[in-house]
User: Which sequence fits this backbone?
């Protein structure tokens, strides 16, 4: 896709890519490469932590090839002087790998030693099926709390395709994954359990299909910088319909983040009290006195929804503006109470256009699925959601771009291209009002965007989510979470 993105595959895609190589006899070679990559990563961790010689590493070994990778990695670590031992959690283990491990002096223990520094989780990989139960090994629970857990390919118990954990699962601080990143490492529960992800090349490249998704990892240049001859009308103009007497702050946050993200003009459509409150913080905001579609004249994008609450007249205004943008195909971001406007023909047309970006959180997405009376979508969004499939399905059902917010944000367009994923280790964002900031950022990106292809709406929305997470990271690198949504706006300047 672009250099800012990296491919993400389903477990099945990786397995299918491996098949011809395994059939051609390359299985052992791939396993050696995987094990070498895992061992090198663990060595680097040990080195940064102190010394390698005599360091205590324990591999938790399962019955299949994942356990095989683990045993070969332990063997390689022993060759470097690491005190690497194994606990077998099943009644069998990869025979050749076990033989190699034993030949290198490795011992099979029946408990996890208390002084374990690194615990390698090599119980289950992409061959995992159904619910997983944590092995009953003495000392394991304690070691999970005190050692650094490194997952071999994927944390055991995590589904490689969805990130769902149908039973128990291990949580890793690092995952060394083979052949390509798996969806399950980024999405849902899996995204919370995989820690830092490192991908090892095992020679699959030419056998891999188009990825199931792309992860956006660094800035996407979606906007143009101001040019020497620019004036305020040529740099894009964003029309905001936000705020109500009950939620004036939402308008402040949306307007403020749009202004800070860089746009020629931000115009707000709101009542007098909200306008006055917004002007106090953002005197550069322009109050829009027109109402309805007329107010929209000249705007290059719109942001509708934050803080409209249940205020009837504000919602009517939002709906008029929404219809005007859909009709004229002007890019628009629709968030929060604005999503409630998707009723009747707006809900069922199936053709709102990729330029309309919906930004629901999980609860809002569930309400949309309910309104659509789409049971399979409701199922995808239930307890342990399949956020990738759900975002795609919602985008297709509405014929719009959908950005599903969460620890991993997924963005999909209406015509089925590979979604983009933004994974942010920034739980400090879980505070009221940060969604309004995201709406302002995306609004500004839409207003100043150069591109107009459908896939670009996905890219622009994802870039908004990346900027949002990067601002949180910059503001709060230690992850204390001692900040609110207004402070986030200040951290938007890159
Ligand atoms: N195919 C290949 O040649 C390669 C595979 N590699 C490794 O192989 C892994 C996949 O290996 P496998 O296909 O052998 O599968 P796994 O090693 O992931 O697990 C399969 C074994 O676990 C058992 N099992 C499955 N679900 C379970 C559950 N919920 N609870 C308890 N036991 C369960 C199965 O009965 C089977 O014996 C990858 O994750 C990767 O680590 C790498 O070595 C690269 C090359
Ligand atoms: N645990 C988390 N980790 C990272 N980001 C999160 C987490 N929880 C929420 N977020 C982000 O915070 C924002 C919250 O938005 P939203 O739920 O709409 O809040 P509000 O409506 O109060 O503004 C979203 O961008 C979401 O992705
Ligand atoms: K594993």
Assistant:
């Amino acid at each position: 896709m672009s250099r800012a993105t990296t491919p993400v595959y389903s477990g099945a895609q990786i397995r299918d890519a491996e098949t011809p190589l395994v059939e051609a006899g390359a299985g052992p070679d791939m396993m050696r490469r995987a094990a070498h990559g895992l061992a090198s990563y663990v060595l680097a961790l040990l080195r940064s932590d102190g010394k390698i010689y005599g360091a205590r590493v324990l591999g938790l070994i399962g019955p299949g090839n994942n356990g095989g990778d683990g045993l070969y990695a332990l063997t390689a670590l022993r060759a470097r002087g690491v005190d690497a031992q194994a606990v077998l959690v099943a009644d069998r283990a990869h025979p050749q790998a076990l033989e190699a491990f034993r030949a290198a002096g490795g011992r099979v223990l029946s408990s996890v030693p208390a002084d374990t520094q690194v615990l390698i989780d090599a119980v289950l990989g992409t061959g995992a099926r159904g619910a997983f139960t944590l092995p009953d090994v003495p000392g394991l629970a304690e070691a999970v709390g005190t050692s650094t857990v490194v997952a071999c390919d994927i944390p055991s118990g995590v589904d490689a395709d969805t990130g769902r954990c149908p039973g128990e699962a291990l949580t890793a601080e690092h995952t060394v994954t083979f052949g390509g990143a798996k969806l399950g490492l980024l999405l849902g529960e899996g995204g919370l359990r995989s820690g830092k992800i490192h991908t090892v090349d095992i020679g699959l490249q030419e056998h891999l299909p188009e990825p199931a998704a792309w992860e956006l990892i660094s800035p996407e240049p979606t906007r143009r910088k101001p040019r020497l001859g620019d004036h305020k009308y040529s740099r894009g103009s964003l029309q905001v319909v936000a705020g109500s007497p009950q939620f004036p702050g939402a308008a402040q946050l949306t307007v403020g983040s749009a202004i800070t993200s860089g746009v020629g003009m931000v115009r707000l459509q709101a009542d007098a009290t909200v306008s006055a409150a917004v002007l106090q913080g953002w005197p550069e905001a322009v109050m829009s006195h027109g109402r309805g579609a007329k107010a929209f004249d000249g705007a290059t994008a719109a942001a509708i929804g934050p803080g409209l609450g249940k205020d009837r007249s504000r919602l009517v205004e939002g709906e008029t503006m929404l219809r005007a943008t859909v009709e004229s195909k002007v890019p628009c971001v629709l968030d929060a109470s604005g999503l409630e406007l998707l009723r009747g023909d707006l809900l069922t047309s199936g053709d709102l256009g990729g330029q309309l970006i919906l930004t629901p959180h999980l609860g809002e997405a569930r309400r949309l699925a309910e309104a659509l009376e789409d049971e399979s979508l409701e199922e995808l969004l239930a307890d342990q959601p399949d956020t990738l499939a759900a975002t795609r399905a919602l985008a297709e059902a509405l014929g719009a771009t959908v950005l599903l917010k969460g620890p991993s944000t997924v963005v999909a367009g209406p015509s089925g291209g590979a979604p983009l994923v933004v994974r942010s280790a920034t739980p400090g964002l879980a505070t009221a009002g940060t969604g309004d900031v995201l709406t302002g950022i995306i609004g500004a990106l839409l207003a100043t965007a150069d591109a107009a292809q459908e896939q670009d709406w996905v890219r622009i929305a994802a870039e908004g989510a990346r900027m949002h997470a990067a601002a949180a990271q910059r503001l709060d690198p230690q992850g204390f979470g001692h900040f609110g949504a207004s402070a986030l706006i200040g951290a938007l300047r890159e």
User: Anything to note?
Assistant: The CA atoms of residues 396 and 445 lie 23 Å apart. The first strand starts at residue 5 and ends at 9. The chain has a mean pLDDT of 94.
